[in-house]
Structures are given as structure tokens and as C-alpha cells.
Amino acid sequence: MPNVRKRGAGYKLQQIARNPFLYGMAVPGLLFFLIFSYFPIYGILIAFKNYDFSKGITGSDWVGFRNFNYFFTSDDFWTILRNTLLLNVLFIVFTTLAAVLIALMFNEIRNKYFKRISQSLIFLPYFMSWIVIGMLVQSFLGGESPPVNAWIQHLGFAPVNWMFESALWPWILTIIRVWQGAGYLSIIFLAAITGISEDLYEAARIDGASKLQIMLRITLPLLVPTISIMTLLSVGRIFNGDFAMIYAIIGDNSLLYPATDVIDTFVFRSMRQLHDFGMSSAVGLFQSVMGLIFVIIANAVTRKMSKESALF
Amino acid sequence: MKQTLSDRLFSIFAYVVLILFTLFCILPFLLMVIGSFTEESELIVNGYTLFPKAFSIAAYKALLHSDALYNGYGITLIITVVGTVAALCISAMLAYSLANKRNVLQTPFLLFCYLPMLFSGGIIPFYIVVSQWLHLQNTIWALILPLLCQPFLVFLLVSFFRTVPEELEEAARIDGANEMRVFFQIILPISKPILASVGLFYALNYWNDWYMGLMFIDNEKLFPLQLILRRMVSNMEAAKNLIPASAAISTVAPTYGVRMATTVLTIGPIILLYPMLQKYFVKGLTVGAVKG
């Protein structure tokens, strides 16, 4: 390729005209983003309007920040904000801890068959839909006499009415989250461990280090960057993404809302049951903006630690 | 190398931890499968056991008569097959264009696809676009179209296409192949592994989706499997309704059993294909994690 001038609209148009297929290929995908991602961004206007179906988005009346005021001054606001943050922190901390432990233990094991089978099995929950998981939870903890209670009573404890005890649910949800996600995360950590130079291990072995010392002094410290990056990525998503899980498991059991209602489920409910489109989209906008801020901060921190791993 | 006692204890500890966690991960599935084959009366009295005394296939027999379940399977199969093929085509074409150095619009295109990962309008505007503007509610398209392009999977493809040596394309072009031939005859065949893993992720997305159904489908004829299952979670009676009255087999309607059996049938295809597909999933996940 001769080094021609690559700037200017004229040059670009010429290039586009010369390779119609190359640009045409992108069209369906770009259209998809335009329709399903950018049109809804325009719809954010609803948050500032008294939305009326018959008038549409542009036709509805402006109400300024009234929709936001409703939400910020309601008691629900603090509850769902606290739940959203608390649940996510629990999920991130415990899933990461479990995944790191599992990855480190896998690294100690030499039996190939055991390794392969065990990895396949702990990975399996990740491929289940939250509905299936919700069904499992329901069949263990739900109903008149939950099967789990039979086991608890065998061990000599009093039965628990799971569907009434909202205080237990942050922990139950955390256990479910670890069950579903720790196996998957451990595979990523294990991939990072595999990348650690064999020389370091050999040197340590020659110096007479025990397996435990090698793990604590070499593997774990070298895994820390990967752990931090995966954690930062989840922190960036702290404001969204749990609707599928929590709605599938909790559903419309309002007894559990005090501890399990998060921004997503709140928005969904006010849309479906209260038909309050204005306030719901105000909450949605609040969530998106907070999410964006968190992603930017998380990314900036990630960038400081390792340029390679930053998103942008 | 000689192992000291502490090393050996440590290895044992590692095995114990992994065995316990593996059991923790698969016990719920085992109990569910066994539960689906257990007599209803025993389920009610004893709950789940690994070794039930009364074996029964009543739940599956009952489900054989359920039109709703056949329907759900049909819908789920259609959206999975059509959706995956379409999603893979669109994503691969988009990613190829995005990854191509000769694309003078590369930066604006990339930005255009990146932004939605960072900022979204939220579900209310999304709902209005799909239902009021596109009028997709209660059509099968509401289950297919909104999931066609996942930015994350597109970028997985982009990072793969970037590793394809330029010489390969150039050589083909010198031989007189046009853009279309380069893409179909050179690029796609060497991208099979990444296409397989991305395709699997799309397929799994479609198979497991219920959110689109929940928002946009009221017509029971269009309920995918997951939505039928969801109904049973929120409502015990729904399990009974799934079975037509004419098909009543025993005096005790196998409500628990039917729920278990439906779940088993819903996840069956994933579990059966899983051993074969797992390596692709792992490949895709680790590639994606290295460069999210």
C-alpha cells in the first residue's frame, strides 16, 4: 500500500465506495445497536415527563424533576439502595474468596481425571437459567414443609419458615450466588495461575519450600492482579445486573422485599404493577448514571494497576 | 521428589475442599433428578432423598400428555436455532468489519458498539421501544430480536479477527478474490473454534432466556420453556394445570414430581450436550476474561 493521505472526508467516502461489502457487513449489527440500545437512550426523556401512552414520548408533558423527587423522598429509596449495594458486596466478596480457594486447590492436585471431572461439575450451575435455580430453591425451601427442614430437624434444630424470614435471605442469596458463579470464576483464576512461570516454582522447591509456603508466597501474590481486576469489573457492575437472579428466586414474595428488593426489581414492579412509567424510568436513569460513574472509577483504578486489563 | 508430611496433609486438604465443593454444586441436581422419579406421596412425607423407596415415572407420564410443554419446547427450539444462527451471522460480520484495519470508520464504529455497554436507557424506554414502536409484543420476534447482538461476544470475535494475519487476506485479494469471498472462504473457515464458542453462548442465552418472554409475551401459545417453568415456581397450581384432567393417572396429582420432571426436561439438553461443549465454553470464557 502506498502511503497516501488518509485524512479528509473525500478520501473516506472513496474508500467506503470502493469496499461496499466491508461496510455493508457492519450495517445489521449497527442497526441492532441503534434500535435496541440508542432508541431507549432517547427514551430517557420519559424520566422528566408525565408519560402518557396515547401521547407518546415527545407528546407527553414535561414535569421537571418531579419523578425523581418522588423516588428520592420515599422510604423505598434507602431500602433498595442499601439492598443493592449490600447484596452485591456479599456476592463479590464470597464468590471471589470461594473461587480463589478452589483455584488454589486445583493447582495442588496432580490427578488429571479428578481435576477434569471436578471442574466440569462445578462449572455446571453457571449454565442454568435463574428460573431453573429459582425452581431448585423453591423445591428446597418452599412449600408447607420444606424438605430442607426435614434435614434440619434430623440434626435437632427447630424448623424454619424460610419464606417469611427476610433477614436470612441476603445469606441464602449469597450461598446461591457462590454455588452458581464460583466455579466459573475459579476457571479464570486457574488460567491465570497456569501463566505463572515454572522457574519460580522450581527455585522455591530447590530452596526447600513446602507446598503451603509456595502457595502463600508465590501463587497467591502473583494471582492478586487478576483477582483485583475481576473484582473491579464486578464493582463496576454493582448497580445493575441482578434482576434476573433476584426476581427468579424471590418473585412476588413481598414478605422478603425488606432484605431482597433491589433497584432492578423495584423498577420492574413499578412498571408492571403500578404502571408508573415516569418514576420507574427516573429510577432507571439514576441506576444507569450511578452505574456509569462506578464503571469509570473502576476502570480508572484498573488502568492504574494494569493498562492491558482496562476496558477503555 | 520426596514429599514431607506437611505437603501430604496439604494435598489431602486440597482434595477434601474440592470434593466438598463439587458435591455442593451437583447435589441439588441429583436430588432434583431423583425427586422427579420418586412417588409423589413419598416426596411429601420424606422430602428429597438420594435413595427413594418408591420409584415412579408418573410425573413424566403425565407430562407426555401436556400440550403446553410440547409447545414450550417448540418455541424454545425455534428461538434457539433461528436466534443463534442469525446472531452469529450478524455478530461475525460486524466484528469482521470492526476489526479490519482498512475500515476508515473503525473508531466511530467501535465507539458506537462500546457505548451501550456503559450506559443504557433502562428497561422502561426499552420496553416502550419494543412494544409501542416496533409492536413486537406477543410475537416470536420479541423473543429473538432483542438478544441478537451481545457487545461482549462481538468483542470476543473482534479480538480474534485481529489475530488473523493480514498476509492471508492480502494474498487472497491479490489472487483476485473480492471482500465477500475473503470473508466466506478464508476468514470464516479459520474462525471455526471462536465461532463455536460464541455460538454456544448465544444458544445458551436463547435457551435460558425468560426475561423477554416475561415482558412481552402474554399469549400462552408463545411461552418458551423457561416461562412455563417460571409459572410453576410462582404458582403450585400451574403444575397441575399443565396436565389435562383427562390424563389423570393416579389419585395424587404429581405436582412436586411434575415440577421436578419439567425442570429436568428443561435442562436436559444442556446437561447432555455439556460434556462435548464444555471445552468451547471454557475457551471462550478465558479468552473473554483476558481481554474483556
TrEMBL record, chain A:
Pfam families: BPD_transp_1. Belongs to the binding-protein-dependent transport system permease family. Residues 81-298 form the ABC transmembrane type-1 domain. PANTHER family: BLL4140 PROTEIN (PTHR43227). It is found in: Cell membrane. This is Sugar ABC transporter permease. PROSITE patterns: ABC_TM1. It comes from Paenibacillus borealis. Keywords: Cell membrane, Membrane, Transmembrane, Transmembrane helix, Transport. GO terms for cellular component: plasma membrane. It is a multi-pass membrane protein.
